[in-house]
Amino acid sequence: MEYTKPLAKLIEYFQKLPSIGPKTAQRLALYMLKMPDYEVENFASAMLEAKRTIKYCEVCFNMSSDSPCEICSSANRNKELICVVSETKDLMAIERTNEYKGVYHVLGGLISPMDGIGPDDIRVRELLERVHSADIKEVILAINPTVEGEATSLYLTKLLKPFGVKVSRIAFGLPLGSELEYADELTLTKALEGRREL
Amino acid sequence: MEYTKPLAKLIEYFQKLPSIGPKTAQRLALYMLKMPDYEVENFASAMLEAKRTIKYCEVCFNMSSDSPCEICSSANRNKELICVVSETKDLMAIERTNEYKGVYHVLGGLISPMDGIGPDDIRVRELLERVHSADIKEVILAINPTVEGEATSLYLTKLLKPFGVKVSRIAFGLPLGSELEYADELTLTKALEGRREL
């Protein structure tokens, strides 16, 4: 037997989502069939609503239903401080700390020659324009410590320096609550390099 | 910053699904915002379509868009052989073997006094009616080897025997490709108990 058609279709759609394999897709679809009608209807409209209303902020390229986004248009944000991230999810991670009061710039990826992603494929030009046209004091690179992240950081630093703007990078080292004994060599190296005088 | 409203709502709905935590929900929602419009629209309609059209088969309580379901109404299925499972997903697992040619009965749960689930809360009466009114030769219990599964199997066996029908249970033992050395004690015990003469 095959799945009954409408169920097969629903499972197929769940499988298109990242990290959802055939078994999980089946479980999610079967669960959904047991949800109350109105819940499924609300879920479906939430999908359509989000897709319809959310666009990129024209300033920082954050996802938002308004443009400029809530952050760029907030009076409580320091517009002289730009935090550069690769993706919206990184921006969200930083927002969850509730500590950062500047604005953002979402690159939409990292430079990766292996994957054929060059500087023109991410929002480098838009960042330079912002730094050029507004009064920016500091650009913080909050980019993953990966090969692609390193390449992108180096590239951006080189381009940004001539504007006379301060360029910094978030610290890498031991995560809080972790044990030195179990840290990998690269993290330890980074932690040593980044040591600060007390 | 909070998530922009429509995104927060979509994330919230993903979180209602089983095994989807806040981080996965966020990842799925952000991914969906990058999918082409028509894909999201098709996904939403697949949800509504499945929910609207799929019901329980009135004979075996399988989920299907028809009642009786594809299996119950198929001429190639042996109606004298009923395989009893707890949930639709167990039925699907057996169907995937392509080996079973009988029909099914989906209980919709297992007897579990701890959770307040008694025989009247699952489809025991409906099973007895089927065995009573049709010409059934054998009932195969394909029920998990858990405490609830054991209780349900024992209970069903007791009720079914008086009908003069053969009652069997699927075998438990070492999974194929596994190594005896790593099997847990309960599985090994089951495997020993279920040994067959060669």
Chain pair forming the biggest interface? A-B, 53 and 53 residues
Name the average pLDDT of chain A. 89
Beta content of chain A comes to 5-15%
The number of distinct β-strands of chain A equals: 6
What class would the helix/strand composition of chain A place it in?
alpha/beta
Q: What is the helix fraction of residues of chain A, given as a range?
A: 40-55%
Q: Could you say what the CATH topology of the largest domain in chain A is called?
A: Dna Topoisomerase Vi A Subunit, Chain: A, domain 2
**Strand arrangement, major sheet of chain A:** 4-3-5-6
Q: Gap between N and C termini of chain A, in Å? A: 69 Å
- Number of structural domains of chain A: 2
H/E element order of chain A: HHHEEEHEHEHEH
Main sheet overview of chain A: 4 strands, parallel
The multimeric state of the shown protein is homodimer
Query: What is the architecture of the largest domain in chain A at the second tier of CATH?
Result: 3-Layer(aba) Sandwich
Structural Rg of chain A: 21 Å
The first-level CATH class of the largest domain in chain A is given as Alpha Beta
Low-confidence stretches of chain A: none
Shape of chain A: globular
Instruction: State the helix count of chain A.
Output: 7
Verbal overview:
Two copies of one chain form a homodimer. The first copy, chain A, has about 200 residues and is an alpha/beta fold. Chain A has two domains: about 5-55, Helicase, Ruva Protein, domain 3; about 75-195, Dna Topoisomerase Vi A Subunit, Chain: A, domain 2 (3-Layer(aba) Sandwich). Chain A contains seven helices and six strands. The first copy, chain A, has helices spanning about 5-15, 20-35, 35-55, 90-95, 125-135, 145-160, 185-195, and strands at about 55, 65, 80-85, 100-105, 140, 165-170. A four-stranded parallel β-sheet of chain A has the order 4-3-5-6. Chain A has a two-stranded antiparallel ribbon with strand order 1-2. The longest helix of chain A is centred in the N-terminal third of the chain and has 17 residues, at about 35-55. At the A-B interface, helix 1, helix 2, helix 3, strand 2 and helix 4 of A face helix 1, helix 2, helix 3, strand 2 and helix 4 of B.
